Amino acid sequence: MSREYKNFIAGEWVDAASGERVENRNPADRDDLIGTFPKSGEAEVNAAVAAAREAYKKWRLVPAPIRGEILKKVGDIMTAHKEDIARVMTREMGKVLKETRGDTQEGIDTAYYAASETRRLFSHTTPSELPNKMNISFRMPIGVAGIITPWNFPMAIPTWKIFPALACGNTVVFKPASDTPATATTLVEILAEAGVPEGVVNIVHGSGSKVGTPLVAHPGVNVISFTGSSEAGKQIYSLAGSKLKRVSLELGGKNAVIVMPDADLDLALEGVLWGAFGTTGQRCTATSRLILHEAVHDKFVAMLVERANRLKVGNGLDESVEMGPCVNQGQLNVVEEYVQIGKGEGAQLVAGGSRLTGGAYDKGTFHQATIFTGVKPGMRLEQEEIFGPVLSVIKVQSFDEAVTVLNDTAYGLSSSIYTRDVNLAFKAVRDIECGITYVNGPTIGAEAHMPFGGMKETGNGHREGGWQVYEFFSETKTVYVDFSGKLQKAQIDTEQV
């Protein structure tokens, strides 16, 4: 059953001035129309920013713990509607219900964590170098936050950004991914129901060029938080940087798992399957590369191929399905292109390699779980982000070679090593150039109270999640209180003390 969705600006649900609408269909069944969405542009962005700027005047003065009470209520509402949210999300972007329930749970966890952090927006009080003087610092809101999010985690990632922004006293203009506008709308509906005042959160649906670019460029937007491709991130960084805006970028990855000879191979197998083919490989933390020590290479590949060939692919609303479709036809085309690239580079296709057709598959954008062996460092298949169910296997002779291969990409998001050797585990933690390293676990899976982000072209150094994101969404104000009753000159007067 479909509905006509609208933008949410200044507390009102409104259509775009253009009157044009865009369909949103289930990638597992194109006959399933989730709804239509307004095709917005710069006029709607301007209205949303104006509303956010007006609302900021009052919202910044609301005591942070009171803002936290609203966010706790958001978590309560999300908990009550978890299954409904998950089912809409599965229809909208395809991943299986177990994963969309997890996506929703991550949003719930983030809500409760954000609520608690409003009582811990700590800063520092330090001794002064002068007598009868006190030095204090405070965390202050920044203003209007432009939030631009991807389709693969349409509930969790917006909450990573919006909840901390609100907790710190900022207001929000939210541009969700065009592939997942229904889940984004559900989040905004919940925020409104929980009592977020008019204008504090606004959502504008539309394309990156028509909505995203005007939002980044708008002089009334003070801070930008973006998750998406490295190419788009560089464009946003350039545009926002020219206006000296604060920008957080969480971008691509080419994540790898190392499996050493002493590893628990059954455990590693489960981790690699989950990391490579969970969310159909459409995660920035997905396992795209598998680095196998030569001593276990052949045995592990045989185990992996056998299990990958048995993965049930289909509509994520079917509880027995293990892997859903690619999010759209364009992404399916990319996966098919990289399969051909891998073949052309001389890699050996040992599992999958084709789109799925026939019967219900013809109504969706399905692809087999795909594995290449004989992949060499430097191949495009090994270097470039695919964002699909394609795994490259690289054989190495030593731990040192494995780490060298893992580090030799432009990205540095997530990584993993399977080993029972505690010394190797800690060497990996030290030497791997990634923002996240798992020991005896897959490359995917984040916790709301821990920082999330990467190195190199994975981002620009900021982190989502944990305590660090609250630092991103706030400014430090330094205050000096002199109660000496006389003029004291810092640095100069210290000589007379």
Q: Helix coverage percent of residues?
A: 25-40%
Runs in which pLDDT lies below 50 for 5 or more consecutive residues are none
How many strands, which pairing sense, and closed or not: the largest β-sheet?
A: 7 strands, mixed
CATH fold description of the largest domain: Aldehyde Dehydrogenase, Chain A, domain 1
Structural class: alpha/beta
Give the CATH architecture of the largest domain.
3-Layer(aba) Sandwich
Strand order of the largest sheet: 15-16-17-14-13-19-20
Describe this structure in words.
- Helices cover 37% and strands 21% of the residues.
- It has 497 residues and is α/β, with parallel strands linked by helices.
- It has 2 domains: 3-251 and 459-478, Aldehyde Dehydrogenase, Chain A, domain 1 (3-Layer(aba) Sandwich), CATH 3.40.605.10; 255-439, Aldehyde Dehydrogenase, Chain A, domain 2, CATH 3.40.309.
- The strands form 6 sheets. Strands 15-16-17-14-13-19-20 form a 7-stranded mixed β-sheet, sandwiched between helices.
- Strand 16, helix 12 (380-383) and strand 17 (390-396) form a beta-alpha-beta unit.
- Helix 1 (42-59) crosses helix 7 and helix 2 packs across helix 6 (181-194).
- The relative contact order is 0.14.
Blueprint of the fold:
Blueprint lengths: L2 E2 L2 E3 L2 E3 L6 E6 L2 E10 L3 H18 L4 H17 L1 H12 L3 H21 L7 E3 L5 E8 L3 E5 L7 H12 L3 E5 L5 H14 L6 E3 L4 H10 L5 E5 L2 H12 L4 E5 L4 E5 L5 H13 L9 E7 L3 H13 L19 H16 L3 E4 L18 E4 L6 H4 L6 E7 L2 H9 L3 E2 L1 E5 L3 H10 L4 E4 L15 E2 L11 H5 L2 E8 L15
Parallel strand pairs: 1-5, 8-9, 8-11, 9-10, 11-12, 13-14, 13-19, 14-17, 16-17, 19-20
Antiparallel strand pairs: 2-3, 4-5, 6-7, 7-22, 15-16, 18-21
Helix pairs in contact: 1-7, 2-4, 2-6, 3-4, 3-6, 4-5, 9-10
